[in-house]
Each structure stands twice: as structure tokens, then as C-alpha cells.
Amino acid sequence: MTVAAEVCDCVTEHRPTPMVYERHHILPLAWGGPDVPENVVTVCPTTHRGVHELLEWIVDHQTWPPRPVWSRYPRFVRELARQAVEQHGQIPQQDGACQRREAGCA
To answer: pLDDT tens digits, residue range 80-99?
Structure first.
């Protein structure tokens, strides 16, 4: 979902400045996360896509990624993924995962 915002919560300087921002649920809705302001951050599309790619990797492999994979993602993306798994309590099984390529999710 795109939103009108002035800043990306990922605290990096964007060049060029994104024209749109997206709402990301820290604990994804597909994992049982609530749709409340406390569970939402505003991020640029690149960060949003990165978080979901990393979460998908974690769920697909049922483990944390090795350093070469983990280090491909910016610190804020890694932190959002860590928070999602921590709030969920464990790495979800694939049937409860957010599968962006199949159904999309916020």
C-alpha cells in the first residue's frame, strides 16, 4: 500500500528521493500481525521489497541466512526481519508465510 509521507523510516539518504512510500507491517499480517499503527513503519519501495525477500528466504530455508546472504541486505532491512521473527516467536512454516510472488501482502 502506498502512502503520502515525507520520510522513509529506514533512515538512509535516498538519491533520488522516492516519489512514493509504502506501509510495512513489522509482524506481517500473513503471520498474524495486527493492523495497528504500532505495527507499521513507512518505508521506500526498495526497503519494503528487501524485507519481504529476506523474510521469504528465512521461511523457505527455515533458518537464518548465512553471512553472505544476510550481508546483501541493508541494516534496517535485517532489523525489520529480525523483529518479525522475534515477535512471531519462531520462524513460521511455509504455509503461513507471506508469499509476495503468489498473493502479495502488506
So the answer is: 999 999 999 999 988 644 44
The total of structural domains in the chain comes to 1
Q: Is 51 within the bounds of a domain?
A: yes
* Domain containing residue 70: 2-96
Looking at the domain assignment, is residue 103 inside a domain? Answer: no
CA dihedral for 28, 77, 95, 91, sign (positive or negative): negative
CA end-to-end span of the chain, whole Å? 7
CA 82 to chain CA centroid, Å, is: 9
- pTM across the whole model: 0.79
Instruction: For residue 69, tell me if it sits in a domain.
Output: yes
CA distances from 83 to 44, 86, 93, 95 (A): 18, 5, 17, 20
Residue 34 phi/psi, 5-degree rounding, is -80, 150
* Residue 1 pLDDT class (50, 70, 90 cuts): low
